[in-house]
Amino acid sequence: MTDDPKVLLEELSGLRKRVRHDRHGYWFPLLLFGVLTFAAMPLYAPKELPVGGVHVDYGVGWRLFGTYVDPFRLYYPVIEPLEHPLALGLYWTAVLVLGFLATVRWYRWRAQRTGVETPTRTYAVATSLALAVPLVGVPVLWFVSATVNIMGWWLNGARTAVAALLLVAVVVAIVAMRRNPSRRVALAVCVPAVLVSTTLLVALSMVGHGQFLVLAVGLLALAWVERSTLFAVIALVFTISALLTTLYTMENVFWRLGLPQFVGDDVLLPAAVLLLGGVAGLAAQAVSREQH
Amino acid sequence: MTEHPTAGIDETVHQRHRLGILTIAAEAKRVEFGYLKSTLELTAGNLSRHITVLEEAGLLEVEKGYDGKRPKTWVSITNKGREALAAEMAALRALLDRHDRG
């Protein structure tokens, strides 16, 4: 063994880098979600509106106590009703759930091939929490919102629903902390972070394209466990593109740039970031394999 | 008077190949025996002996299984192993600092 601590530390640092490069597999979920996002573009075809300003429901929901409730509201663009809202809702629900399962399966399969396994627990927990928003949170929020409105409370229904969800989360966190005191510190950090991010996600879900925020939460968690600078940058750029798509009407960007508008142009930016990120990840892995 | 950095060195861990095994295991959920063997360029017998020492010290956990019909041995680091590795790295850095200052 070398007696020089400097040489030893350098050797260990080299080993650490090599293991990280060997276990990186983030190009797969990026390419998968990129292709699936591009494939969703035809589903954004707008509905032909009748002449004369007749009221048109935007989604596939139903009237509950006089208020429109739609479980797929998270996925729609804000400004116009769609020709196939049910297909779009089912498509994104399937993409989020099956894409998440495929990603976890991919890392397990890759571990058998390379001999080094990426820990996916953090990704699984973060994505499950984020997935709970469209699958459970949004329908519950709309239901509570409709119920509260019909009861004529002075509070805005949506705000009351978010407050109710937060209250439930706080109670669950307190019960969990009492049952397992050794996890108090971790919970004290994690629970507020989850509460704040979930609240933001629920709030943002009201303006559409929320599936990209769910994907962003998952990719940021994956970038953390992958310990890759390149992937962290890609995940960050995707998060910015997801926020832009969610909070801004991308049609305006195309119009200002003088570009032609087309069906699904709203999702072009996040789809392109995912695909280009996947290609960059694949290239980085090929370069790393040559070096080692 | 401050304690000499070598006082923080654990004899079980302070060995080049064992440090290598712990460093690799700390970077993954679990690592396969064959990966450790090729990465550290060790013979199967030599690697096996080091893993046994680390397992007996409670620094590693060993899990034997199959990939189809092929037997596979997976190694994962324990919390105690992570702490021992962190202490060893801190001791090595302290030694280096002392050497640079002296």
Structure, described:
The complex is a heterodimer of chains A (292) and B (102). In chain A, strands 1-2 form a two-stranded antiparallel ribbon. In chain A, 70% of the residues lie in helices and 3% in strands. Chain A has 10 helices and 3 strands, in the order H-H-E-E-H-E-H-H-H-H-H-H-H. With 292 residues, chain A is mainly alpha-helical. Chain B has 102 residues and is of the alpha+beta class. Chain B has one domain (9-101): Arc Repressor Mutant, subunit A. Chain B is built from 4 helices and 3 strands; from the N terminus they run αβααββα. In chain B, a hairpin with a 2-residue loop joins strand 2 (60-67) and strand 3 (70-77). The mean pLDDT of chain B is 88. Strand 3 of chain A pairs antiparallel with strand 1 (30-32) of chain B.
Fold blueprint:
The complex is a heterodimer of chains A (292) and B (102).
Chain A: H1 5-23, H2 27-39, E1 62-64, E2 67-69, H3 85-114, E3 116-117, H4 121-150, H5 157-179, H6 184-205, H7 211-226, H8 229-247, H9 250-256, H10 268-291
Antiparallel strand pairs in A: 1-2
Chain B: H1 16-26, E1 30-32, H2 33-40, H3 44-56, E2 60-67, E3 70-77, H4 79-101
Antiparallel strand pairs in B: 1-3, 2-3
Transmembrane segments (chain A): 26-45, 86-107, 128-155, 161-178, 185-203, 209-225, 230-248, 268-287
Keywords (chain A): Membrane, Transmembrane, Transmembrane helix
InterPro entries (chain B): WH-like_DNA-bd_sf, WH_DNA-bd_dom, WH_DNA-bd_sf
